[in-house]
Design a protein that fits this description.
two-stranded parallel sheet, single chain, 2 domains, 5 helices, alpha/beta, 43% helix, Rossmann fold, GMP Synthetase, Chain A, domain 3
Length: 136
Amino acid sequence: MANVLRAGGLRQGDRCVVMLPRVPQWQIAMVGCLRAGVIPIPCIEMLTPKDVRFRVAHSGARGEIVKAYIVLKPGRAASAALAAELQEHVKRVTAPYKYPREVEFVAELPKNASGKLLRRVLRDAEYARAGAASQS
């Protein structure tokens, strides 16, 4: 479980909401969080939506969404309509829950010397942007 959390991008000190009924998997998830250095926020199914919102809001946990970074071909203009069209396309060809909730058009994507995409650079920039927004 700890490896799954790390692979999902959680780092030591991050907070993770664990929402399961009182089943053995709940204890496994809690121990996995502790082994990964992640702070578990225990929630059970009996909590009301209001209670869950309160716990999440006051826990310091942050959520993540799927975001698409799009490099347009020359001559194409970025627009909200194009972003919506791309989102609808992804909903049709994959599972609806996998579509990007946010679309950002960029001039180029960060790559290493061999041409591999540097996701870390995009993720760190997004964390920095989210941190700056929460400070203001």
